[in-house]
Structure formats: C-alpha cells, structure tokens
C-alpha cells in the first residue's frame, strides 16, 4: 500500500467524511433549489416565449464561455494543486497559490472578460454597466472562495452558501420577469445576484486562506502548475463549447432563433432533471485528488464505485422522470413549446452520458493529465462542430440534437477506453458498472412510446409513463444483476444520518441489484480485494 501517513493533513477517512458531507448538503441544496428553479423557469418561459427564451440562453452561454476561455485552467489548477497540498498539511503552499490566483484574476481576467462581453453582447448601455460591475468586476475582486472551499473539502459549506444565493437570485428573477419582462433584464438580475453572492462564500473560508485570497500577487504558482493548467484550461475551453449549450450560439448565429429557443428549453429541463445525480459528483473532485495523494491504491476501486452510483441514479431518472416530464411539457409551458418533448428525450439521453462522464474526468484531472483532457475534448469538439455545420442548415434543431448526442457518446467512449485502463479497472468491468444507464435509456423509450399509444390526457399519461419506466429499469437491473452492490449500499447507509438512512433504505434496497466484489472474486477464483470505505469500496 502506498498510503501517506500525515498527522498535519487529511487522512483517507477525513477525505471520505468531507466528501460525503459535501454530497449530502449538495443534495439538500438541489432538493430545495430544484423545485424553485423549475417553477421560476416556467414563469420565464411563459413570459418571454420561444424566441426571447433563446436570447436569454444565448446571453448566459456567452458569459460562461468567456469566463472559461479567460480562466486558462487557473481554477482547475488551483483546486488540484491546492487539494493535494492541503491534504498533506502544506498550508503555506496553499496560501501562495490562492494569492497568485487572485492576482491573475484581477490583473488579467477582469479586463479581458469585460472587453469580450462588450464586444459580443448587445444590450442597453445602462444594463451593460450593471452587468460589468456585478458580473465581472465584483467576482474577479472578491471571488475564488469556491476553489478555497474545494481545497479544504468544505463542499458542504459551499452547498449551503449556494442554496442561499440561489434562493435570493430566483426571487429577484421572478420580480424582473413579471415587471420588466425582457431577456436582457433577467440576465442582468442573475449577474447582480451572483456577484453579491460572492461575499457570502467568503464567510466560510478559513481565516488564513481568506486573508491570502484578498492579497493578490502576480507570482506564487508552484512548479508544474502551468504545465497542468494550460492544457487543462484549453480542454475546459473546448469542453465548454461542446457542453455549455453552444448549440444555442450556433443556432442563433444561423438565424434559427425559434430552434434556439426550443433547444434551450429542452436542454435546460434536462439539466434540472439531472441535477440530483450531478450534485453527487462535485464533492468527489477534491476528495479524489486528495485520495490519490494519500492512498493511490484505492483509486481504482473508487472509480468503480463512482461509476456504479452515477449510472444507477441516472438510470432511474432517465427511465422514470424523463418520459413523464416530456409528456407534461406542452401542458406546463404552453403549446408554443410543443416541439420540445421529443428534443428533451434525445438531449436527456445525451445529458445522462455527460453526468456519467464527469467522475471519470475527475480521475483524469487527479492524475494531472491536462494534455490528455485537451486532446479528448478537441476530438469531441471536431465531432460536434462538424455535425452542427453539416446538419443544422437542413435539419434545424435536430441537427443540433444529433451533434449533442454524438459528442456525448464520443466523450464517454474515449474516457472509458483509456482511464479505466490507467487505474487498472478493466474496460469490460467499467462497461458493466455503467450498464444500468443503458437499461434506463431502453426503459425510457419503451415507456414513452407505449404510453403514448393509449391516448390518455397529459397527467395520467405522465404518471403511467413514470411507473412503467421505473418498473422496467428495476426489473432489467435485477435480471442482468447490474446496479449497486451490497457493499455500495452498506457504505452509503453507514455514511448517512439516521433519519436520512431510514428514508433512503427502501430506494437503496431497490437499486441494490449487482453482485458484490467478494462474490465476483469467488466466481473468478481470485482473492477479493480489500475494500476502502466511502469514496472507494467499504
């Protein structure tokens, strides 16, 4: 075992506990914020209509892409190098890193983002001034707390602050939508809420690290930082274009404004449905990085558990929630969005693949393989852009859908083929770990098609589709013996508070359909590998 014993840093058990606490609080954040975001999205869509809803998505996507391009991988590098140093107890190294990061943001990032937004976005000058002040200047001067909290594995605190900021932001958005009622005003209100929210995140950062964040320096990045950060940053730029609703940009630039609105609503709804599963991934990233630092032998088992958990949760969401929700879209959003349901199903399948891909990418980042991430995302970008250019002119929104789904398949395939070999898991074993998701996709399509044949009203059809989809995927997982192992379920139950454990005992038992590692080892005639709790195996 290549485990590092370290009395000043974080042990494997502490990393596990912090990751689990972060995941639980992130789930609470999602449980509180998701219904509110869903309701607010209905107000926005019905107020703006298809075309202006697409414009709002365009404005938001521009900010995401510009911020990612200017970042140059600094955030990713700070989290990776900082999490390793903090786990090993090297506090002074972390403070230098945070100060250098703030220096880069203030001197380089802030002016570049401001100028780019001025060039790409056409809004009223008064609104633009507010957007620059709260969406660019304030986050650059006082931001960075998210990285500091990730370094300290305080993802629970990060989730708590995010929940409060989101609640305030949604209230302000509703006020803007119901009073002013324009895409530009809603965009600016979101930036104001996010900018002011940076102040709250600072409260949860430890005093030493907070002091470092407020003292920017132009130097202080450790050796090897830019060697990782620049390729990782380039990979993030490419990934942002492929994954951050870039199809909305292309559709808008090609004057397919109605298609842009349909695509924006469909992919936004898919992201809402996947938020619970996605929330489990974020807290794992610093924990995986720290785990590689203190116990590299546990990484392979951690990957297997993460894949099983994410694919099983996604299978249930895709099989039950996706067909049910698609049937309700015209009723909820109005007939103007009647083209959305089929697009939602297709983008939901692609989105589920991307959720499964995120844990694998976290393991790649923990090995500091920034160049590999770059080539991976470049390959995906070539597929995405090529298909958009070829297919959007003749097919409209469906050209964008095919591009999105194809790029997701390419991304997941490349990640699985390469990363699982790097950690010694084996390609076939990894494919078995994610098999529940593909069973969920099949159940989703069968439930959608079958329920639609009855011609029932929207609500009964949605209920029936959800029940049928969930029943089909659970039955398929039990038949194929895929899903969570008993070891997985035991580890999750041990990590949960008593009340939560009682609530989730039934769903966990329902999804515990795979053989455990010991049984599989006996069938192979080999000695079972010792398990690692929490992040790895129990």
UniProtKB/TrEMBL annotation:
Principal subcellular localisation of the protein: membrane
Subcellular location(s) per record: Cell membrane
A cellular-component GO term for this protein: plasma membrane
Residue segments, region Disordered: 514-538
Residue ranges of the TM segments: 22-44, 56-82, 127-151, 163-181, 187-205, 225-245, 257-275, 313-334, 340-360, 372-392, 398-418, 430-450, 462-480
Source species, domain of life: Bacteria
InterPro entries tied to this protein: Poly_Biosynth_Transport (IPR050833)
The keyword Membrane is annotated on this UniProt entry: yes
Presence of the UniProt keyword Cell membrane in the record: yes
Record keywords, A-Z: Cell membrane, Membrane, Transmembrane, Transmembrane helix
Topology within the bilayer: Multi-pass membrane protein
Name recorded for this polypeptide: Membrane protein involved in the export of O-antigen and teichoic acid
Organism listed in the record: Krasilnikoviella flava
């Amino acid at each position: 075992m290549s485990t590092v014993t370290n009395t000043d840093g974080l042990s494997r058990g502490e990393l596990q506990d912090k990751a689990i606490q972060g995941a639980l609080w992130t789930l609470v954040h999602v449980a509180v914020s998701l219904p509110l975001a869903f309701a607010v999205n209905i107000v926005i869509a019905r107020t703006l209509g298809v075309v202006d809803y697409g414009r709002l998505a365009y404005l938001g996507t521009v900010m995401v892409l510009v911020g990612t391009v200017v970042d140059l991988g600094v955030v990713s590098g700070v989290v990776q190098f900082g999490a390793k140093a903090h786990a090993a107890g090297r506090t002074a190294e972390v403070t230098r890193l945070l100060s250098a990061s703030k220096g880069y943001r203030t001197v380089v990032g802030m002016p570049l983002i401001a100028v780019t937004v001025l060039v790409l976005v056409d809004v009223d000058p008064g609104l633009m001034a507010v957007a620059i002040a709260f969406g660019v200047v304030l986050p650059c001067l006082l931001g960075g707390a998210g990285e500091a909290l990730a370094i300290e594995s305080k993802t629970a605190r990060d989730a708590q602050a995010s929940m409060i900021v989101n609640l305030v932001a949604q209230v302000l958005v509703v006020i803007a939508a119901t009073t002013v009622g324009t895409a530009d005003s809603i965009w600016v209100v979101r930036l104001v809420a996010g900018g002011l929210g940076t102040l709250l995140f600072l409260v949860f950062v430890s005093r030493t690290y907070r002091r470092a964040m407020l003292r920017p320096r132009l130097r202080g990045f450790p050796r090897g930082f830019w060697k990782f950060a620049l390729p990782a940053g380039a990979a993030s730029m490419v990934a942002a274009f492929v994954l951050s609703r870039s199809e909305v940009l292309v559709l808008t630039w090609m004057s397919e404004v109605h298609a842009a609105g349909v695509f924006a609503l469909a992919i936004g709804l898919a992201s809402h449905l996947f938020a619970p599963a996605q929330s489990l991934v974020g807290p794992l990233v610093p924990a995986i990085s720290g785990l590689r630092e203190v116990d590299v032998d546990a990484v392979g088992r951690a990957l297997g558990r993460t894949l099983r958990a994410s694919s099983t949760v996604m299978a249930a969401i895709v099989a039950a929630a996706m067909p049910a929700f698609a049937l309700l879209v015209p009723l909820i959003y109005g007939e103007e969005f009647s083209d959305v349901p089929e697009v939602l199903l297709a983008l939901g399948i692609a989105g589920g693949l991307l959720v499964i891909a995120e844990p694998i990418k976290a393991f790649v980042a923990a090995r500091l393989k920034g160049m590999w991430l770059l080539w991976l995302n470049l390959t995906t970008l070539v597929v995405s852009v090529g298909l958009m250019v070829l297919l959007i002119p003749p097919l409209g929104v469906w050209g964008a859908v095919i591009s999105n789904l194809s790029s997701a398949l390419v991304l997941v395939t490349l990640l699985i083929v390469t990363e699982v070999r790097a950690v010694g898991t084996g390609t076939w074993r990894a494919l078995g770990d994610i098999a529940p998701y593909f069973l969920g996709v099949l159940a989703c399509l069968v439930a959608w098609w079958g329920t639609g044949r009855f011609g029932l009203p929207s609500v009964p059809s949605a209920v029936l589709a959800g029940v049928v989809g969930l029943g089909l995927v659970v039955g398929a997982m039990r038949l194929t013996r895929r899903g969570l192992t008993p070891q997985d379920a035991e580890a999750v139950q041990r990590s949960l508070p008593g009340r939560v454990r009682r609530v989730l005992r039934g769903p966990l038992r329902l999804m515990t359909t795979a053989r455990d590692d010991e049984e599989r080892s006996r069938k192979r005639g080999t000695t079972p590998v010792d398990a690692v709790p929490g992040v790895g195996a129990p």
